[in-house]
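sry for the spam today, last one i promise. struct tokens for design, 780 residues
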């Protein structure tokens, strides 16, 4: 018997062994469509001289620039904003421009606004007067009132207003490399953002009859003209945010003399607008290790009662920003500290502005959270380049360069819940983080909300986890998106959906892309590769206009990981992750020389398994009985399957030539497990397998998503283990957003529902099921 024959015998014995775990019928091979692992191709834009195939800006990349000189005044008696601006527009494109497009975003509040008319509405049997009143047209007088548009010489320019866009027609085309200077005078009625909604406006405090003004989207500003879409003049309807041009700003803000103003940029005249004591505190804050109050709570309370009738002008300048916003009120506390480390060579000022209601929370946390955010985001993207970063408490969340509006107020007794505290910290991190996406990495929010909200929410998650151990992050971990992804298909849209057309806006534009990036970092790419590529994207596109294709290509270019299958599934589709472990069969070798006897018998019996041999054998037995009984006795005692000495020598020779690992196989010390999986959700992902052994230990195998490339529906995989397996679980740490964990284990393990878990918790605590599980301890 030859060496190769023994190898054949071993293989035969292995396949013929009984299953260790109760086996089902093996899966059918199914069909393969191949689409999920094809390259993105026409789904993304082609590379060109402006944007390379690597995802970097091309050799001929260009972008426009717009500088602003603005004088603006708040009429605190009538809630009016009056402004005059001079815009210098630089045409860096290769195209002559015969007209310019500007945005008049505040026209979303106008009486004839399109967004007031295009949404569905319905009636219920029970409705309040306030709800019904929203259906009654009213003339409120909101929107931008354009008073004058002239060129640098004062000559009137023709213009056309279309809802939230304004076109200025040029007498002669603006040539490539040239600039055009024009002036606009305008005013607008400031809206009550608390009652009427919107991202900016005023909040009125009846108890002290004062206003908090958060002024944004307030001036006519240039639309983006780009290489990939020309003019971005899609209307602003209140959801899809902004596509904006970088430029330099100088803004003179005139307000009541007792107002405090916080703004994009750096104030140029603190010496004129602050008291000597406040100015001294400002200088002291440059070296303080803790947030220092520039305007104190006591000073704010005094100002709230006096209400000055005189005015002051605060002058702010900002370089290379895409927008400008500010806050103004007499009821503001202002604190500040310098971020002395963590931002490489920059030491920006972290600052907060907040009213008395927010003092218990903001004085303790806000500015420190701002500083923390700058440090963490700088680590994962680029060092924060601006001189300041501001958090304003304004009962809502919205972001602008160097300044953002957040929420977080205590109750009337100065107490607050843990939920309020963590909600405030989370929103501050998120809105301050927007300084990086999209204020620096300047994507088009009107078209691709996920490029700023999703990327920012992902880094927010990293910053939250670094703020505090076990921080209760709402978004980021994979399992938190599973409930959204298991919704019916008619309630889902791809991430690559225009902002205006998304039904489940928060899950789609914030949570799902953030989760996808976290999965890329933790499971698909690994932290080192992901972090390098993500940082490279931020470096390449800082102060530029990236598109999704630039992001997708850069992440692959800088990591050498083919991710087209991932973008295709997570960003262009609505499939969910549901990988089922359907079947497990185990095989173990139990081979020794004596087993050849059994093997020979099996082969002989198999060879007898035909009608001719069966009949011949029967005839042979009859012959022996008829002729000689002694021959029959000899025949019955003879073992035709007995191992011969020669076979024993051949086996010993064969065994001696085996490697130590091959001897483990032959000796039955290695068990082979054949696992069968089906892709029930449609979204291909890596298969993460946890092996739980009889001795109490565990081991995890990571099977790359490429296992699905030849069959996207069903796959099998064999594993060799030296320990006896007790049970197997896939995705044990909930890394892939699997929507059905009941088919993730073998043998099957029942998963309790949330309601059942709640009942168990109540039983453990000795409380009734009707008790309120959401009670929160009050914190001072």
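last one done:
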């Amino acid at each position: 018997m030859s060496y190769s024959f023994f190898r054949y015998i071993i293989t035969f014995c292995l396949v013929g062994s009984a299953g260790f775990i109760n086996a089902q019928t093996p899966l059918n091979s199914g069909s393969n469509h191949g689409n999920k692992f094809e390259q993105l191709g026409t789904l993304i834009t082609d590379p060109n001289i402006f944007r390379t195939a690597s995802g970097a800006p091309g050799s001929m990349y260009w972008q426009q620039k717009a500088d602003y000189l603005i004088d603006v005044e708040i009429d605190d008696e009538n809630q009016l904003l009056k402004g005059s601006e001079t815009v210098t527009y630089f045409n860096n494109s290769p195209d002559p421009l015969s007209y310019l497009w500007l945005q008049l975003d505040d026209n979303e509040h106008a009486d004839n606004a399109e967004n007031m008319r295009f949404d569905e509405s319905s009636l219920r049997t029970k409705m309040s007067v306030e709800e019904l009143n929203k259906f009654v047209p009213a003339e409120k007088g909101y929107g931008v009132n354009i008073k004058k548009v002239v060129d640098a010489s004062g000559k009137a320019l023709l213009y056309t207003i279309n809802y939230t866009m304004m076109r200025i027609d040029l007498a002669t085309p603006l040539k490539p490399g040239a600039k055009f200077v024009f002036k606009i005078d305008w005013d607008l009625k400031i809206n009550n953002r608390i009652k009427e909604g919107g991202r900016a406006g005023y909040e009125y405090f009846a108890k002290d009859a004062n206003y908090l003004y958060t002024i944004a989207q307030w001036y006519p500003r240039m639309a983006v003209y780009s290489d990939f879409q020309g003019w971005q003049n899609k209307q602003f309807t209140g959801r899809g945010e902004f596509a904006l041009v970088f430029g330099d700003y100088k803004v003179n803000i005139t307000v009541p003399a007792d107002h405090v103003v916080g703004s994009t940029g750096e104030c140029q005249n603190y010496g004129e607008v602050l008291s000597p004591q406040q100015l001294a505190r400002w200088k002291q804050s440059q070296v303080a290790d803790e947030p220092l109050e520039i305007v104190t709570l006591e000073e704010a309370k005094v100002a709230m009662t006096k209400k000055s009738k005189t005015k002051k002008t605060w002058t702010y300048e900002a370089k290379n920003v895409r927008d400008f916003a500010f806050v103004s009120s007499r009821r503001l506390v202002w604190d500040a500290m310098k971020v002395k480390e963590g931002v490489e060579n920059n030491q920006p000022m972290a600052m907060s502005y907040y009213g008395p209601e927010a003092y218990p929370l903001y004085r303790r946390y806000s500015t420190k959270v701002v500083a923390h955010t700058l440090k963490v985001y700088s680590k994962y993207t680029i060092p924060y380049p601006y001189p300041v970063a501001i958090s304003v408490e304004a009962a809502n969340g919205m972001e602008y360069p160097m300044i953002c509006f957040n929420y977080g107020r205590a109750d009337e007794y100065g107490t607050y819940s843990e939920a309020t505290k963590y909600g405030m910290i989370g929103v501050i991190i998120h809105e301050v983080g927007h300084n990086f996406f999209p204020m620096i990495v300047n994507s088009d929010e009107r078209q691709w909300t996920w490029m700023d909200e999703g990327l920012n929410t992902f880094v927010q998650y990293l910053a939250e986890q670094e703020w505090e151990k076990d921080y209760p992050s709402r978004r980021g971990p994979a399992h938190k998106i599973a409930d959204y992804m298991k919704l019916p298909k008619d309630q889902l849209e791809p991430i690559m959906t225009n902002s205006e057309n998304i039904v489940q806006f928060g899950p789609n534009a914030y949570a799902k892309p953030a989760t996808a990036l976290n999965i890329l970092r933790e499971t698909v790419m690994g932290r080192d590769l992901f972090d390098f590529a993500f940082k490279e994207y931020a470096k390449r596109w800082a102060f530029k206009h990236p598109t999704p294709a630039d992001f997708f290509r850069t992440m692959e270019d800088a990591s050498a990981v083919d991710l087209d299958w991932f973008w295709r599934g997570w960003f262009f589709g609505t499939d969910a992750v549901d990988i089922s472990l359907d079947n497990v069969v185990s095989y173990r070798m139990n081979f020794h020389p004596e087993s050849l006897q059994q093997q020979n018998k099996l082969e002989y019996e198999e060879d007898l398994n035909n009608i001719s041999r069966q009949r011949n054998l029967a005839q042979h037995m009859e012959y022996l009985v008829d002729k000689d009984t002694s021959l029959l006795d000899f025949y019955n005692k003879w073992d035709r399957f007995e191992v011969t000495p020669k076979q024993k020598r051949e086996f010993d020779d064969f065994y001696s030539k085996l490697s130590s690992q091959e001897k483990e196989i032959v000796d039955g010390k290695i068990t082979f497990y054949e696992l069968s999986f089906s892709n029930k959700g449609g979204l291909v992902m890596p298969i993460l397998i946890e092996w739980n052994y009889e001795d109490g230990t565990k081991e995890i195998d990571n099977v790359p998503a490429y296992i699905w490339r030849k069959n996207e529906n069903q796959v099998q995989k064999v594993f060799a283990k030296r320990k006896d397996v007790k049970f197997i679980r896939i995705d044990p740490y909930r890394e892939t957003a699997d929507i059905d964990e009941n088919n993730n284990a073998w043998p099957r393990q029942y998963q309790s529902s949330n309601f059942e878990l709640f009942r168990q918790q109540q039983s453990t605590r000795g409380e009734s099921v009707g008790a309120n599980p959401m009670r929160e301890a009050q914190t001072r």
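The first strand starts at residue 65 and ends at 75. ok im logging off now
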